[in-house]
User: Fold this.
Amino acid sequence: MSQKIEKPVLSGQRIKTRKRDEREKYDPTGFRDAILLGLEKAGNDLEAISKYLDVAGSKLDYRRYGEALFDILIAGGLLVPGGSIAQDGDKLVKTTACVFEQPEDMEAMRNFEQVFIKLTRRYKYLEKMFEEEMKKVLVFMKGFTAKERIKLARMTALWISNGACPPTVLSVLINEHLVKDNLALDFLMEVCVTWKQEKGLPSLMTALKRGGIEGRLMEFVPPNKRTEEHFRSAFEAVGLADIVKLHKAQASQEAKRDLQQLLLDDLADNRPIKDIVLDLKEMAVKSCIPEHEVIGLIWGVVMGQAEWNKKEELVAEQALKHLKIYTPLFGAFTSTARSELALLLKVQEFCYENMNFMKVFQRIVLLFYKTDVVSEEVILKWFKEGHSVKGKMLFLDQMKKFIEWLQNAEEESESGEEED
Assistant:
């Protein structure tokens, strides 16, 4: 039987490797020095700068040093944590061919933006790197001067509005140390003002929604100033009253969702109607939700509580039985004619959109009339002019006899008063 012979081990031998297999040492300062030398030769000619960056990409490793490249083009040199420029000993190594060294006016900003546009079009892989760079640079903002922050904000508005980076990058500003010192709010407002001037208000509003910023606007305000009054005055002072309206609308939507959730929770806990009314009224006052809007929210939640019968002939009795339980709740939020009409319109809309309820409309209105949830004056107003176009002819026809009865009763009442 043959034995396996071990192969001899070579000691003291160096394995030769091909040059291309060796990992090149990471040297961002060497890359910086090469870029700075090229930019110095290009001078202040933006066309020459773009041409140099275009050619340099084939010799210098942009894939590896993309972050360093953008540091240089934004701040003038390599950024270190905190936002300052990296030094060589006591010497500050930087270029004037950068955002921070451009004039503040928008023409200069737009001109320099072309350097970035041409660069990222030529080297598409830099686009994703630029997005990551922006997240880093914005967090470093505290280390920049007031003028540098203004220039960066104006350029950021151009970059985002022209698609160089997404509006979601602005959310990194919601950082404790930036918010506390009012830097986040000032930067956001400068971006918004610039955007509005350059691209118009609709474009700005769309971007705030797309970036998920519209629902977080108050988070940019320092905690010790986080009031509706301060928010309003800050944005209105720079001509951004429309942002205040957007914020109010967003806050109102959130408050309405919270109110609906409160009602759902109270119903799940089987709380007495009078306690539910107190809870809802307290939240409505606190969140500034008017009664005519509250009643619509209540209707939606109450009707969502039932598993409705699919047979039209059975759903009427089920609906009346279900709604009768909640008439004290509806009645607590129909103290004005506007709220009553809002409820009738919600009922009309629901019956129109749910086919099995088409013939139940009149019976629901009659229930609300008998339980003093809605008055005859508002029912008559709904019939004459206040109704919706949804199923108009069907519902008006359904209500005809009841309306005639109300009008006759009203006439009899008036004639009785005259006889007295």
